[in-house]
């Protein structure tokens, strides 16, 4: 930023000296006009080049016409602001100094704005590195996209450590490393058997594609998380869960088998019958056992694209727990909690319940999506805006009819309606904190944690509470029987200390933290809460992959 | 629903075209050498679109087989798009006539054999379209690739004549002249990014031109003007230039 302003000054000087030079060699009729034109053009080109190569450090030497055009456009736009402010001061205060003051303020606003515009739109600095959904942590990385099994094998043959990357919907650092293998080109459907509902596809296929194709044929995912923009590989590696975990379990429960490329390039077929330890390690194994290539999952038969939804509003945590118990046989359930509510309203929430309809209407079209085109300054999300949103949301939902029909997209993927909503949290990113507590201590623990959060005023939109069923056999799967809460926290001062404190409570109560969301837990917390960790470490050693697959997370947690 | 036949189906542009036409509701015949390499692609497209995607082996240089291959198609396609092309190596071609011949046969001679067979069928039915992907390289011969250019030039001229012949019968012929496209043919070349488009974009423009019933289309539009400029450089200057 400072360099940017220095360059701004430099090019202004250059502009003026060009004008001066020009005037000294040319004395024609259009002296002033031509001088301004030449000076401005010269200054513009100089600044463009300086910005391009020194501030935003673009490596390619080509001058891109489109880039130049947008750059010119942001210049024009910010100049208008500069002039406008100067003009305003001039007329508002009518003294010469105020005009210069106005010019100074206008120019500053203009340049700061232009800096952000150039950074985000013109040179697109942020897009070169892959990030996770929380945009924290950040790491310089280079990624490579194999197009086939054999190109994947060539890549893995390098003497470089990699981590697989699906669609970057994990919040933390599980898919981040210096070198990344991106599965986006391994996105082919291989086969579907309409008798059994068995689907075979490559690991880079997105759940949203499966939905797009199969809902109209009467099939849906048996297990789906709260976003459809994840890959099959990511679904297996995090052993994701959905609103029906208490009934149907994790993603691995619809998984028949998959093929996995190991560190030496060998491909192993893994299922509960064949290489079963590798199967248990890979489901929930956060990409650390190898690269998942082909996947076979079972889909679920549906008779409608509609979900019948019931909303139950609960005044506090006690009511919510009672409601979860009452409705524990409903297939889909999740509660949204206003985590900023205090005192007797702690746990004020809406429990959303749903079952697929039976009306035979399968005429499904994916919903159109809005976009957040750039990172908002992070101060936009603060205690007041979040509090207002949460309160409003609660009262709107409470006022709704209690039972009605909603679409698959609205019910399962409300957040998918807005592309890039994570940018609302600003450039510095955010953390999602998701923990689970054993059923017996859930109420007491949640009350404690919600009280702390409300007191610290560090809440988030849409904290999500869910009931979970039995734990499965996988070594690192997150769910245990009990309740889990997920909250978003903007990265800001004090947040890491707060979460460390919450970790302690979670550990003491016998709970754990979800790896797919984590970017910060300590190795000690991790080791004390994942009881089958030793199995996982043993398998990693046996198949000898520690020198091939690592993520920031695996290094932090000693996986 | 009707079938569309794509020749040179392993080209990135061909794959993007296949996706577009499947999305529009057409079934597909995909032809290329070692067509089994396309099985994964075809299966995926079949599942995504719900359309038929059939693979057929074709080496365009074996023209003795063309008639049989075409006649075996049932039903016959209502449209044919050829992406077949071979950039070859000009330097080698200058010293090895076999290589030169291969460039000329692949880009021009052999394709005409196949297109003529399809054209006759469409003419009979008074319905159908043919899209030939030629190149701006055919608009003027340059030292760097004149075998390729000459062959593409011949192909463009052939398409123009074919269009003329089939016009009374309602069969459309579209000549596509791409400038630079980012594909596996050009993956090792440094192309100026503002003159280059992706295979997907190119395919989209081709489909649009075909739907509109255009005759000759440059991909993308700047190339029409660039080639106009290049075409108007006097020969005594042009021969001294390095392009
Ligand atoms: C809005 C939103 C809602 C969410 N809701 C839920 C929810 O309800 N329940 C839930 O469980 N999760 C939820 N998640 C988390 C998300 O489902 C998981 O983080 C998932 O793993 C992301 O998949 P991805 O394809 O984006 O993979 P990435 O985020 O790119 O990677 C995640 C992990 O998978 C590994 N991986 C990816 N591809 C492969 C492969 N081919 N082979 C081996 N390893 C691979 C990576 O190494 C990494 O460890 C949510 C996320 C978002 C953004
Ligand atoms: N890329 C550009 O910048 C550019 C510019 C102008 C024009 N073009 C033209 O656009 C078309 C598509 O090109 P592209 O860039 O996608 O290149 P490409 O991938 O090389 O496509 C050419 C296709 O022709 C096939 N082919 C070559 N010889 C054949 C033969 N004897 N029999 C059957 N098929 C044969 C190739 O098959 P294999 O895969 O089996 O080799 C390949 O699929 C070509 O006609 C090309 O000349 C390209």
Textual characterization of the structure:
The complex is a heterodimer of chains A (559) and B (243). Chain A has 559 residues and is of the alpha+beta class. Chain A has 17 helices and 19 strands. In chain A, the strands form 4 sheets. An 8-stranded antiparallel beta sheet of chain A has the order 14-10-12-11-17-18-16-19. In chain A, strands 4, 5, 6, 7, 8 and 9 form a 6-stranded antiparallel beta sheet that branches. In chain A, a hairpin with a 5-residue loop joins strand 7 and strand 8. Chain A is globular. Chain A starts with a helix and ends with a helix. Helix content of chain B is 47%, strand content 17%. In chain B, the strands form 2 sheets. Chain B has a 7-stranded parallel beta sheet, sandwiched between helices. A two-stranded parallel ribbon of chain B has the order 7-8. In chain B, strand 1, helix 1 and strand 2 (27-32) form a beta-alpha-beta unit. In chain B, helix 1 (12-23) packs parallel to helix 2 (39-49), helix 1 (12-23) packs across helix 7 and helix 5 packs parallel to helix 6. The mean pLDDT of chain B is 95. The interface between A and B is small, with 13 and 10 residues.
